[in-house]
Amino acid sequence: MGSSILFKGLVLLTAALIFVPLAKRLYLGSILGYLVAGIIIGPYGLGIMGADNHELRQFAEFGVIMMLFLIGLELEPGSLRRLKRFILGAGLLQFSLTTLLTGGMFFLFGFSINASLAAGLGISMSSTALVLPTMKEKGIEHSPSGEAALSVLLTQDVAVIPVLALLPLLASQSSPSPLPGWLHTLSIFAAIGVVLISGKFVFVPFLRFIARSNLRELLTAGALFIVFSTALFMEVVGVSPALGTFLAGVVLAGSEFRHQLESDIEPFKGILLGLFFISIGAVINFASIAIMPGKIAGMMLAIFFLKSSVLFMSGMVGRLSLDQNLLFTVSLTQVGEFAFVLFTFMNRLLMIEKSWLDALLFITALSMMVTPISIFLAERFITRHMNLVEKGEREPKVEYQSNPVLIAGFGPFGSTIGRFLKANGVEATILDNDPDRVELLRKMGFKAFFGDATRLEVLRAAGIEEARVLIAAIGDWPINAELIAKARKVFPHLTILARVAHPVQAYELVEKGEENIYRETLDTSVRLGVDCLVKLGHRRYSAYRSAQKFLKYDEEAIKVLAGTRHDEDTHILAAKELIRIQEKLLMRDRAYNPTLNDHAWDSRTREGNE
Amino acid sequence: MKKILIIFAHPRFENSRVHRALIANVSNLEGVTIDDLYEEYADFNVDVEREKGRLLDHDVIVWQFPLYLYAPPALLKHWFELVIDFGWAYGKGGGKIRGKTALVCVTTGGSRSSFAPDGHHRYDLREFLRPLEQVAYLCGMYYLPPFVVHGTYRLTEEELKKEANLYRQVMKKLSQGVPLHESYRYDRLNEWVTGKDG
Q1: What is the dihedral of CA A518, A523, A524, A530, to 10 degrees?
Q2: Which residue among A138, A419, A473, B63 sits deepest, i.e. has the most Cβ atoms within 10 Å of its Cβ?
Q3: pTM, entire model
């Protein structure tokens, strides 16, 4: 048993590296893998890590904090509005009814009224961190059951705020805090207010300021700074730090930095979540469970029964079909990660004893462990015996949140495209790396996000997987080229419309097999040429026809010349190459006659024909 | 004093000797507006409201064009489809250009005798203009006989000058607002001013 932090880190990583791929192989999802890894290295497995291991606890707490920040960040006001009907109906019903019923059950087990209510609140929570990724992994997040599950989870996530705030009130008789319960509650509300207000007036301007420096890692650091500072602030005020970071996430969810932050924290998120689940596996106290196995088993069965019946009822209220309702119920029956936070908080407020805390933590952990398996089985069973899930998936979604077009780069070039599309009723999602511009666009009602479009996570977060067309309109050619190459490789379904500045860039794309290439100055120059001809006395229609033909001819020329590019020295400078290309184009032009084959209206060809 | 609108459609005006002469002879007349479609709407993006406004502003509407494969040029057809609107020019709520005078000024390479049952083109020229005539009728306009320049490839400078002058006289007469029933006696409006039957 090593004591150095390096050794412990190594153990954690080893456990994760062995069990997570194994669980994935068995189609059980990564979360189960982390939990099992935790049990194995925990005091009741190999005993490498003790349950009272201080560092592990700290890791776990940090994991919870980060996870809640991410959950808050994903709590998009848009989806709240979109799913309003379901949230107000089935979501609230599930939450209140489960709280009441399980609270009643705890009362029967001998809890005080207040403790019963508090425990009921904890039990009614399902696991956002577990269910959403699992549903995404299985590709059912947009099915009716997926949407319903999302609504219920959103309701619970939002409910966490008042629940954590009101908990000290319920604990009033025995609170360890020097303040009376009501004052404690008041201070919590004040703290929430401070976080929400400073979110809008401090965090977002702060991030904008950082974003202007154009250093990607600084934005990550800024986000982490916000997370840590709110967590610390909340702890000082005596509120759960997790609540603070959750709120910080909620505030930033509505800002233009959402996608960028999500993708910046994404790599950490997986690891931290993994640590969180490992620590849960490790803290399950099998010893205290052994003391009262009957009681715990009974309680567990009662909780599962109550939770799933209420969920099924909520599904019926939400008018889910039978198969979708079954999947929905099975997905959400577990007790979620918020329960860990709530139960620990309750224990700190001296509302429940340590032995009950262990029991509740065990129940929660076990239910979370079972979930991936039960979703897996339920989905198998339903698709095999009812064969209805796929039908639900294929139904066209009316309220689909992502746009068919993604515009990367919203300078003068991209913005004209966006305006034109909008004028024709086509909504586009916009990605740009100028924070001021993004802010302006959002004010004007565009769906604009700040982010680096060459990063796959940013593209995914902006909905590229659902988009049909990607407009690569970034002015900086190397970045635009990288975006095109990546998008072509990773998202082959996309139609890519590419902006290029000059022929050399067009050649590069032609060689890579791109077909929709747009030289940014071509049409404008030709239009100017038309006007010049008109000023010189040419008929506008003739000039216009000639311009149309010229555009076509020019596109052909680029394609033909692209093939001959490598016949020569491949190492010439780009600037030199451009001159050479222009020379070749001019040579070709000499043989080009714009009015060739356009003599229909030329009376001279007719003379003597009559 | 009647106001005349010449809706002129020629895709290669710069190469048309005859139309250049015709237009040159009437463009400086008082009360005559020339609406040069291929110059104004080279991209076929006809400004419908503007065109409707012009129709309302004038009393006599002339469609001037070269006949090509027995029909007007594409942009003029396009113009009809866009401007002669149901519910505006005709149909329920229409009738906005009712009572105006309408005529066609057309040029063709074919001689007058070739436009006959025993000729190369098998029908009289006016048969090929029936769709335009019927549009005018549909809109409640008075449709006059056409002004026609035949055999454009063989016209001498002398003959062309004569035709262009006739066109000017027709426009003058129309702008004076003289009674029009007389013109119906003639097959071509050219003869209305010379007073002799073709």
Answers
A1: 170
A2: A473
A3: 0.55
State both tokens at A302. Answer: 């009662």
For every residue of A40-79, DSSP letters joined together read: HHSTTTT-SS-TT-HHHHHHHHHHHHHHHHHHHHH--HHH
pLDDT for res A572: 52
The per-residue pLDDT for range A191-218, each reduced to its tens digit, is 888 888 888 788 888 888 888 877 777 8
Q: How far apart are CA A155 and CA A336, in angstroms?
A: 13
Those residues with Cβ within 8 angstroms of residue A115's Cβ, 6 or more apart along the chain or in another chain: A106, A170, A346, A351, A352
Distances (CA, A) of B139 to A53, A503, B61, B184: 94, 54, 12, 19
Residues facing residue B102 across a β-bridge: B61, B143
Cβ A474 vs Cβ A431: under 8 Å: no
If residue A580 lies in a helix (H) or strand (E), which one and from where to where?
helix A574-590
Which chain B residues touch A543 with a CB distance below 8 Å?
42
Cα–Cα distance list, A379 to A131, A324, A388 (Å)? 13, 10, 10
Q: Is A209 on the interface with B (CB under 8 A)?
A: no
Please state which of the ranges A126-140, A213-227, B115-129 shows the lowest mean pLDDT: A126-140
Interchain pair B153, A603: CB under 8 A? yes
What are chain A's domains? 10-172+269-394 (1.20.1530.20), 402-500 (3.40.50.720)
Task: Give the SS3 label for residue A600.
Answer: coil
- Assess contact for A312 and A378: CB atoms under 8 A: no
- B111-144 CB burial, b ≥16 within 10 A, e <16: ebebbeeeeebeeebbebbeebbebbeebebbbb
**What DSSP string describes A483-502?**
HHHHHHHH-TT-EEEEEESS
Residue that wins the pLDDT comparison between A18 and A46? A18
Q: Which two tokens stand for residue B150?
A: 């035949």
Angle (nearest 5°) at CA A529 between A527 and A535: 110
For residues B135 and B94, give the distance between their C-alpha atoms in angstroms, rounded to a whole number.
Answer: 13
DSSP assignment of A306-319, as one string? HHHHHHHHHHHHTT
Q: Give which of B8, B10, B15, B16 to mutate to test A binding, by max A Cβ within 10 Å.
A: B15
> Region A119-133: what's the mean pLDDT?
84
CB contact under 8 A, B152 and A544: no
ipTM score here? 0.84
A527/B contact by beta carbon, under 8 A = no
By C-alpha distance, the chain A residue nearest B12 is: A601
Find the mean pLDDT for residues A329-339.
84
pLDDT 10s digits, A243-280 = 788 888 888 887 878 777 777 776 676 777 777 777 77
Does residue B19 contact residue B13 with C-beta atoms inside 8 Å?
yes
In angstroms, the CA B94 to CA A246 distance is 65
Architecture of domain B4-194: 3-Layer(aba) Sandwich (3.40)
Residues A121 and A342: beta-carbon distance below 8 Å: yes
Helix (H, G, I), strand (E, B) or coil at A469: strand
Quote the DSSP letter at residue A229: H
Region for A27 from its dihedrals, namely left if φ exceeds 0, alpha if ψ lies in -120 to 50, beta otherwise:
left
Cα torsion angle, A349, A350, A352, A354, sign: positive
Distance of alpha carbon A49 from alpha carbon A47, whole angstroms: 5
Angle at A119 between CA A115 and CA A125, to 5 degrees: 155
Beta bridge partners of B34: B6
Pairwise CA distance, residues A459 & A21, whole Å: 26
Model pLDDT for residues A12-30, shown as the tens digit of each residue: 788 878 877 787 777 666 7
